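Late entry, 9G3 complex.
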Amino acid sequence: MKQSRMFIPTLREVPAEAEIASHQLLLRAGFIRQLVSGVYTYLPLGYRVLRKIEQIVREEMNRAGAQELLMPAIQPAELWKETGRWDAYGPELMRLKDRHDRDFVLGPTHEEVITSLVRDHINTYKKLPLNLYQIQTKYRDEVRPRFGVLRSREFIMKDAYSFDVDREGLDKSFQAMYEAYQHIFTRCGVDFRAVEADAGAIGGSDTYEFMVLSDVGEDTIAYCRECSYSANLEKAEVRVKETGTQEGVEDPLPLEKVHTPDARTVEQIRDFFNISEQQIIKSLMYKVDEQYVLALVRGDHELNDLKLKNLFGGNVIEMATDRDVQTLMGTPTGFMGPVDVNRDKIKVVADHAVKYMVNAVTGANEQDYHYQNVNVERDFTVDQYADIRNITEKDQCPKCGGEIAFARGIEVGHVFKLGTKYSEAMGAKFLDENGKEQVMIMGCYGIGISRTMQAVAEQRHDEDGIQWPWTVAPFHIHLIPVNVKKDIQRETAEQLYQKLQDEGYEVLFDDRAERAGVKFKDSDLIGIPIRITIGGKIEEGLVEVKLRHNGEVYEIPVEELLTRLNKIVADLI
Ligand code: 9G3
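Prediction complete; structure with ligand written out below:
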């Protein structure tokens, strides 16, 4: 493609709304443009990358035995009413009416559509297992779209759905998808981890998120330095230390109420009593669906509200309001504690670590008062001890006891075992080999295609621009004559342009009458893996080859170029 003809609206300045490197670079290099908040146009360079990623996904999905189809984005509300999700979702679900005033959704995902399709056409075990997938635009009205296409309201997803006769079949389908994802993200050239994740509203077991490691990732990953364990922080289970006792177990001292004017936060209590945060019981009031829960965690730990919600099998969890707390506990939030709690209305759940606390400090359920020397079982009881906190780097790996470390990641894929959640609700059944009617067992598997494009740019860039891996780059070679007014440079470039394309390379030919500096700056910004420069040295028959990802430069006699290039490329892939 000749660059003088290509629509690449590069930008010199950094757009204000772009906070992270990949968002800035995709805008500046002319890959994407925002239409409105959270809604983007993929410009020609960006769209070439998207298509490369889609092609990799297709090849691996087809190799895993999945079949591609394309479902509509517009879905009748009736299907969402069958599964109860029409009412379960709020403003994030984009809804519209047609000319007959009928309700529709703009598809954020396609469990309902695919299950209704399969139930109408599959009714015998002979036709299972089945894995159907699509690559299609999704709509989710994010409350706060940000970071370019990492969190947009319209995005491109590959979503696949597997249908099996039993759990064993699902495990096979799931494994095939898990492996396909390993191949896909490896081929996309990103450093990624498959991490144990929370099944969320979907429920069920076994769900993994594929995370591209990045400091700007919204998700926190807890991983073990010794073994392969890694989990989304939401999910990472805490291995309960049998002892768990505080340093130097003391004898329980008599309970004492202390006047603590205006000391509300853990830090203020710590300083007031001149103790460590490990000696404070933090009391947090939540509402899980309709149940009020007083959650107790040690002062130096963080409550994990997802674990708390899952403990109750709840759908919605929210912090209780100050008014609720005042009504339920007779005290402002900062002075709550587990002693003398109205157990008819409130469940008391404590993290395992609380069990081992001796002579702790906690709120006295009275404004400006705290208790000290609080001892579990003597001064208060607990309905249940559970793992309700975030793992920390001081905790041991739940699998091997090794050291835990944190990383941040961008979620680009997510694989779920759905079980019968949708097939039951929608009656997707089949006759098994004994002629008995059974419910299909489902799995679902997503990849954020547009998000993956930006995740690659986030992980592979430097201050001058993007460093696209060979496999997803918009072009393979950037061919740049330094001065198009010099016949020898222009003619050599024209010949090479043809030859390289005849060899199957995708070439962006910078035929613009721009100064060399501008051409090289744009080239670094766009980030095509190999740059071939035709400059003054062509007088000696030499061209320059430069690799974008490590800056290596080679001077090569033009007649050896194709041979040398094949070797250079072989090392790149
Ligand atoms: C909605 C809205 C947002 C949603 C969903 C439904 C996420 C929803 C979960 C999934 C699960 C899998 C198939 C591909 C892989 C992921 N956000 N999810 O169901 F109505 Cl507004 O989408 N679906």
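The first helix runs from residue 21 to 28. Will revisit in the morning.
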